[in-house]
Design brief:
The protein has about 425 residues and is mainly β. It is built from no helices and 39 strands. Helix content is about 0%, strand content about 40%. The chain is globular, with a radius of gyration of 20 Å. This is PKD domain containing protein.
């Protein structure tokens, strides 16, 4: 087991250090090397449910999901924490931070003055009505009443902060009475809807239009969204759309792909689950579920697409699992990390029921691929598969992982772990 990076963490919950500062940029982090396959020992454990989201604010990791209890790294002390908690990035100490949220938290984003934005399926925060999105203080867990966007219904599945803007994605169709289907941009301090920003997403024939996930490039100029939609305005955009957001609005670009038009298993209104920009914004990687039915479709795969040119796009490469879902992706430069409940990588000829095909390599639950070729790297820490990895978060010191199982890197790690840089 890897030695602790610092002295043994204290086991009592402590308050978050009081810090101030401007709005975090939220930029992706480049790594010089692939992370270690041996996770650190000091991270705490979530004892039930699923971790859906992770964020870092200063030296604090915020964890969101659907759970009730957490413990310190030694598992000697247990704390009641419903759907959200926080711990020290460098020592794993569980913070006193414990806001009351009555539903699952699917997304998190760092806020100004040591706060965090939370998004999910909740309707109240600390007993006060606040549906789907809120801002809370990491010092005392208090809700900021000045940030008060009102969702008409639905949930929030993605949050990204860039400067004084907060991007919000999910299943809603209006905020503060302003029609915005699945994607909106808000003032990060007040929650007021940006009137000039409207992606005009629509899903004719679909039960519900929604944004499943999205990302904003490091420079803040491009936004890529995936989900259950077929159009942006009058333009065809099946499950994926790229916008120029460097100006006052959401300008649909000429970039598009028809790669996700073929249907996967019946019942998937969208089979795309996550999308991330590379640190330099030159390409994206999409993770997908969908129950693979042929090697020609992009179900149960990860695919890279270039973003620097307009017009029709084909994937640069496709990593196929042979029938197992991928839910999470992180891109650091030397590696593209993929998580789900997959058993194999490099498996275009395998099937879910018949085992691996020629050339397949074992990568249970987590793995990494070469960003240029999409082929599996040697990095193979393993994890107990469960439903799958739901969240990656790249930090300057490593890679945080959130999931629904308690084995990571051949060690006990309850639903949270961190692989440090070598």
């Amino acid at each position: 087991m890897r030695r602790r990076l610092l002295a043994a963490a204290a086991v009592a919950a402590v308050a978050v250090p009081a810090t101030t500062g401007a709005m975090p940029a939220g930029a992706d982090t480049y790594h010089p090397t692939v992370v270690s396959a041996d996770p650190v020992d000091f991270t705490p454990h979530v004892l039930d449910g699923t971790v859906w989201s992770l964020a870092v604010v200063g030296d604090t990791v915020v964890v969101g999901g659907a759970f009730n209890k957490v413990s310190d790294s030694s598992r000697r002390f247990t704390f009641e924490r419903k759907n959200i908690f926080a711990f020290g990035l460098h020592d794993g100490v569980i913070r006193a931070f414990a806001p009351e949220v009555d539903g699952a938290i699917y997304s998190l984003a760092p806020g100004p003055d040591h706060s965090v934005y939370i998004g999910g399926a909740f309707k109240t925060v600390n007993g006060q009505g606040q549906r789907a999105v809120a801002r809370v203080s990491l010092r005392d867990g208090g809700r900021y009443p000045s940030f008060n966007p009102r969702m008409n219904w639905g949930d929030v599945r993605g949050l990204v902060t860039r400067g004084e803007r907060l991007y919000v994605g999910g299943t809603f169709s209006a905020i503060n009475g302003v029609p915005r289907v699945g994607l909106a941009r808000l003032n990060a301090y007040t929650g007021v809807v940006d009137q000039g920003f409207d992606a005009r997403l629509a899903g004719p024939g679909l039960k519900r239009t929604r944004v499943e996930h999205f990302d904003v490039s490091t420079d803040g100029r491009k936004l890529i969204a995936v989900g259950a939609f077929l159009k942006s305005g009058t333009a065809d955009r099946t499950q994926i759309a790229l916008f120029d957001v460097g100006g006052p609005g959401a300008a649909l670009t000429g970039w598009y792909t028809d790669a996700f038009k073929p249907a996967c298993m019946k019942g998937f209104d969208t089979y795309l689950r996550q999308v991330k920009f590379s640190p330099d914004g030159s390409y994206i990687v999409v993770a997908a579920t969908g129950r693979a039915s042929s090697a020609q479709k992009l179900c149960d795969s990860a695919a890279r697409f270039e973003t620097r040119t307009a017009g029709p796009q084909n994937p640069t490469w496709v990593q196929r699992t042979g029938g197992d879902s991928l839910y999470a992706v992180a891109i650091t430069g030397p590696a593209v990390y993929l998580g789900g409940h997959q058993r194999w990588f490099d498996n275009p000829y395998g099937t879910d029921g018949n085992g691996p095909g020629p050339g397949a390599v074992s990568r249970p639950g987590i793995g990494a691929v070469n960003p240029n070729t999409g082929k599996a790297l040697e990095w193979n820490p393993t994890r107990s598969r469960g439903v799958g990895v739901r969240a990656f978060l790249v930090t300057e010191g490593g890679l945080l992982v959130g999931s629904d199982t308690d084995q990571l890197g051949r060690e006990y790690h309850g639903r949270i772990g961190m692989f440090p840089l070598r």
